[in-house]
Fold Ribose 5-phosphate isomerase B.
Amino acid sequence: MNPASIPIALGADHAGVALKDSLRAALEAAGHPVLDFGTHGAASCDYADFAHPVADAITTGKARFAVLVCGTGIGMAMAANRHPAIRAVVLHNTTEARLTRAHNDANVACFGARTMGPEVVLDTLSAFLTTPYEGGRHDRRIAKLTPGARPQEA
């Protein structure tokens, strides 16, 4: 993972806190600044309480990318995608990570702590953070994600 000047925002619920903490350590060791929005313990909590501030960090420009972790990654992705500027995806492997960055300009990687091992998550996150967005024909497709948008066909 290559260092970046804009922080990566992190968030997790109780099911994902241990994986989030290990990802934070790996990101910081690789030189990435990190904004950790919690949770910071194993007490039961609600994933949306962490997904929303993480999404806000991207929307306001405080972070370029984010990582959200819960039991499956699904709840976090659903909550984050309520924000118009967010393109959150549940990832399971490096192929998905590369394609969603290259074609969808995804900005939030969601992982399931109960469904993936930490080594696979680290490899997948590395692919997500280092794959550039291709632009071009994908721009109009991304524009269509916004309700009411009718971009011109090329």
Notes: Residues 8-143 form a domain with the Ribose 5-phosphate Isomerase B; Chain: A, fold (CATH 3.40.1400.10). The first helix runs from residue 17 to 29. The radius of gyration is 15 Å. The chain has a mean pLDDT of 93.
